[in-house]
Amino acid sequence: MGIFKLRKNKKFSYTPRHFDDKGEGNPFEIKHKFDEYRTTVGNHGLKAKLNNALSDLKSKKDKESSRRILIIGAALILIFLFIIDFDLSIFSPK
User: Fold this and answer.
1) Domain carrying residue 47
2) 1, 10, 67, 87 - which has most CB atoms within 10 Å?
3) Contact 76, 82 (CB under 8 A)
4) pLDDT tens sequence across 54-71
């Protein structure tokens, strides 16, 4: 009758839906989409994070984008000053 026999647990072969078939990494690990491209992500100290952020800031792509942002910002400021009818002649010499 099986009084002394223990019941065996059922085994399921479960694989998560979005887990790649290559078997790379942990399928249950939650990480951001762009973490592999960032150098400031991780369990580093504050000094290392700051140094990594400064090195990213000095890269060539960032220089081009920051220049573009400065030009757009200057144009928006000039448009704002024009709208509020600010007199720019105070900056010119007499």
Assistant:
1) 35-91
2) 67
3) no
4) 777 777 666 777 788 899
